[in-house]
TrEMBL record:
InterPro entries: KH_dom-like_a/b (IPR015946), OsmC/Ohr_fam (IPR003718), OsmC/Ohrsf (IPR036102), OsmC_Ohr_Peroxiredoxin (IPR052707). It holds the Pfam family OsmC. This is OsmC family protein. It comes from Flavobacterium agrisoli. Signal peptide: none annotated. SUPFAM superfamilies: OsmC-like.
């Protein structure tokens, strides 16, 4: 039996009546009970560089889901995870028509663990976490994971 969970997000845009300009790049994303996000197109697409952009948010979703899946598998395999950090780098291919898509994302997670004898296992668990990640399972582009692990000194 599968479980279905629904999520709801709202986007709002309004013409700037003070300047009588239509800025189609800037809008607000609202989720009930959470702070609003100011969103725009990426700077490369003439958006406001001070606001989040959809590409940032997609990478943020992917990196966060991978991290939480990793926490789950570490707990399941009794690995004492002390800290975790990660960066994500994505490549978007833009076509002549203006359409585009992500073609590749590389994640660079770094785990710090308690037990030196578990380093190899801690690194290998990134694959299991990737298989569990809801966001990664929803993507149609290549995702590469380049994990590192060390023991707290």
């Amino acid at each position: 039996m599968s479980l279905k969970v629904e999520f709801k997000v709202q986007a709002n845009w309004k013409k700037d009546l003070l300047t009588d300009r239509k800025n189609y790049k800037n809008h607000t994303v609202s989720i009930t009970g959470k702070p609003d996000l100011k969103v725009s197109a990426a700077k490369e697409f003439k958006g406001n560089p001070e606001f989040y952009n959809p590409e940032d948010l997609l990478l943020s979703s992917l990196i966060s889901c991978q991290m939480m899946s990793y926490f789950y598998v570490c707990q399941k395999h009794k690995i004492d995870l002390l800290s975790y950090s990660s960066t994500a780098e994505g490549v978007v291919e833009v076509n002549e028509t203006g359409s585009g898509k992500f073609i590749e994302v590389v994640l660079f997670p770094k785990a710090v663990i308690q037990n030196e004898k578990q380093i190899a296992q801690a690194i290998s668990l990134h694959h299991e976490a990737h298989q569990l990640c809801f966001i990664a399972n929803s993507c149609n582009f290549k995702i590469i994971i380049c994990p590192t692990c060390e023991v707290e000194q």
